[in-house]
Amino acid sequence: MYTIQKIKQNIVNKINNVETHCNASPQDLVLPPNPEMGDLSYPCFNLAKSQKKNPAEIASELAKRIKTCQTVKEIKAVGPYLNFTLQPKKLAQEVIGEIKKKGYGAANIGKNRKIIVEFAHPNTHKAFHIGHLRNIITGEAVCRILENAGYKVTRANYQGDVGLHIAKCLWGITQLKRKFAKAAKEKDINKKAAFLGKAYAFGSGKFEANEEVKKEIKEISQRIYNNDESIREVYLETRKWSLDYFAKIYKRVNTKFDRLYFESEVFADGKKIVMDGMKKGIFKASEGAIIFEGDKHGLHNRVFINSESNPTYEAKDMALAKLQFKEYNPDKIIHVVGPEQKEYFKVIIKALEYVLPKSKEREQHLPYGWVRLKEGKMSSRLGNVILGEWLLDEVKKEIAKIVKKNKELDNKNELSEKISLAAVKYSILKTGLTRDIAFDIKESISLSGNSGPYLLYTYARIQSILRKVETHSNASVQETHSNASVRSEEKNILFKMSLFPEVARESAEKLEPSLIARHLFELSQQFNDYYHATPVLKAEKEREFRLALIRALAQVLKQGIELLGFETVEKM
RNA sequence: GCUCUCAUAGUUCAACGGAUAGAACGUAGGUUUCCGGAACCUAAAAUCGAGGUUCAAUUCCUCGUGGGAGCACCA
């Protein structure tokens, strides 16, 4: 049990002891808007309702009846709220002590629970754009947050390597033969991937505009499904280009997958499942296709096998689910996929309840907001996309300029890479998951203020102070607390740090990394403010306590930053 | 047309139905001695419109306006 939980329980017990019908629980306690008002607050509205009294009256009555203790220094009524102020020295002792232990903030809500998080899923032969970047950064953070909460997490990535989009690209290649030959000779995998993006956009454009081309592309698609010799070589070759390119990006953003699924490995079984399901009445023939009647469940109908007898994405998802349950028997599968597929997933999950009854309640779509350009629309179909790597490179260039100026730094390239990853990841994760991100290269990726580099800077600054202390003295917090007074800024930092385990747990429950991002930012703000007003090294009797405080703070920052999926640096 | 979503300072984002709507960027000023100025301080600046529910609404409901997405053989 963490300190904060003990404190909350203690306060709740106090309330329930004097007001036996109250039944207050730790979740009822809220944070006052301003730390001067207190650290924790109990709103008396519910009590007022059941007792038919004025909430402010109840609060002031309770304030008189409840006694302070070692942990709670002060209890006062502020309007309808009963506010509790904690004893700073006691708080310091407990919180700093528990942060020193390994794994501060870990929880066991997911104990013995297996979970598959499926994310990234780029399609081969298409561009890897900033939308994918948001997906992969979000997915990785969610994995780490769930692991921290005790879940056994399997990272899965389902990559589309068959279907019409491939055919569009391959058709494009037949038209751009010379460029294709040139790309094949390139050693730089980025250039190969860039060529595929162009070929796809070209094919896609003609597909829309020209009926003849449409026919040809559909015919190519058929050949891919049939694994036709005429196309096999170029298909496999270009598929490899894409996959090599993706692997490079996964490595760059520090993500590893436990299992790579491919559409090509499930489409045959998908078709079989739907055909079998048709006999059982789960699916139905309609207008030459085979559909699932979503409208019978308040949803919409979807085609699972098209009139050319090929399985659509829907059918493939049936087989994918079957395979995932067979391989991992998970308690939950989370699909990190864009919001445009909300309705799609409702239908799929409903169909799966019939196809694979054990999947019920275990399949979940986790949509995240759109990454849209501030100006203009982005579409891989039209070829005007912002590539994920382009963004990383641009940010890195900006950071490298700053890093270059500092002559004391080593490994400048590696350092710039780390800081730029922090900048990009943080800028995506600080926004609420479901919110769209309006993307502007100049504004969205800030290097100051509420940003990844700000967190890293705060951490590095603390490390710099700690480096100046050769070996910290043997005095422990317990020994120093008696003669060191705890300032209010220090108590606020301590209290904020004590809340970290609850923030980490909540972010796992809600699958919301932004909660951690915000908490770390606020913690950093508090420290930087404190730093400017309070000497640490030059203080005398408070020195040991202050060092212990900032050491603990650095550790919380580090752990939180790792949950978000990037790394701290010692100097920057 | 139907369904789902979103609307908060100039911009990008916060705010379990609860206390004075909180930050960042940008703008305008400022930070002698000081452990890192990628920092800190000060200032100006906001709930799309109209109703309703509630002791209390940025938050819930209805209608309107304006973005975005989905709605059968793409993924």
UniProtKB/TrEMBL annotation:
Residues 455-572 form the DALR anticodon binding domain. The keyword Ligase applies. Pfam families: Arg_tRNA_synt_N, DALR_1, tRNA-synt_1d. Its main location: cytoplasm. GO terms for biological process: arginyl-tRNA aminoacylation. It is found in: Cytoplasm. It is an enzyme of class 6 (ligase). Coiled coil: none annotated. Residues 5-86 form the Arginyl tRNA synthetase N-terminal domain. One of its GO terms (cellular component) is cytoplasm. Its EC number is 6.1.1.19. The keyword Protein biosynthesis applies. One of its GO terms (molecular function) is arginine-tRNA ligase activity. A motif ('HIGH' region) lies at residues 122-132. SMART domains: Arg_tRNA_synt_N (SM01016), DALR_1 (SM00836). Keywords: Aminoacyl-tRNA synthetase, ATP-binding, Cytoplasm, Ligase, Nucleotide-binding, Protein biosynthesis. It catalyses: tRNA(Arg) + L-arginine + ATP = L-arginyl-tRNA(Arg) + AMP + diphosphate. Monomer. Belongs to the class-I aminoacyl-tRNA synthetase family. This is Arginine--tRNA ligase. It comes from Candidatus Falkowbacteria bacterium CG10_big_fil_rev_8_21_14_0_10_43_10. The gene is argS.
